[in-house]
Specification:
The chain is an alpha/beta fold. Helices cover about 50% and strands about 20% of the residues.
Amino acid sequence: MRLLYFLHFFAKLPGVIYSTALMTEERETIELSLVIPVYNGSRTIGPLVEHIQTIFATTPFEIILVNDGSDDESEMVCCELAEKFPQTVAFMHLSRNFGEHSAVLAGLSHARGQYVAVLDDDGQNPPEEIMRMLQELKRKNFDVVYGHYIEKKHSRFRNAGSWFNDRVATFLLQKPKELYFSSFKVMNRFLVNEIIKYRGPYPYTDGLIYRTTRKIGQIPVEHRASASGPSRYTFRKLVRLWLNMFLNFSIKPLRFSVYVGLLVSAFSVLALIAIVIDKLWITRNMTFGIPTVLASIVFFAGLELMILGLVGEYLGRLYLDQTGTPQYVVRYTVQAGLKNESSAVAINGEDRSERNATAL
């Protein structure tokens, strides 16, 4: 029986080697992958893809559209684009809205190019700038090159949120102040392969980049006004992004809570000594009323609840990670004219999927 098993194994081995060689050759033939997360971008994604087809006509490239639970007709538009350009456009449809960074991670997991660019779906990131960023990456041997906007075309609210997130990233991740984490970037294959190893359910791509490499560059790029109207980033989404960065990539909040606790304890001891001195030698007839006591209790109770909530948030995220909360779930993909019905779930950094390919 063992002899038959080994003969069967070695009979299959050439086919496996041939299949692997084909996959490697296919990846090497694509120089550039463009990952575009799509959220309610039915009006803008079509012209953007058409424009990219013109710009990169002489470059081996692919476009990966990831529909992140859009409420409009983005799914239909993306399917039509994948059918119209079967050689260059692939489409991934997520089962619900998982957030921009999860959608980007889904696209990176399926990108085959030696270099990968990430850009928005609303036309704010000019595709023409990608070649300049790619040349800078190759020339200086960077792992990633960010596009630093010369003049932002966001609303005041969005600019304020971006400024706050940038300051928090500078403090928590200890990045240089002059380095700006934008959504417009070009990465090499090494960095992409490291990013998609992330196992947690709350990805923050820039945090993953910065914990992997310091070979980071940036060049000034144009930032156009959004063709889809006001920014789709709400206050809730900005807070969620801030929490992902605040809790997933640093334990400084826990250390900060320790320092706050020590500071408050020291302050309490000093206040107690001052009260005793004042009572014994300065104002012997002074009495402390109930409002003072209640105010002290409320202050310390609020401080304790804040620290407990912080610890609970860390534990809750650890629990969700251990119970297999997915980064994203792919309902189906469209590639090379084939619709692949999929139940792909990204759990612990791996795609577990069952697919059934059918022609469009």
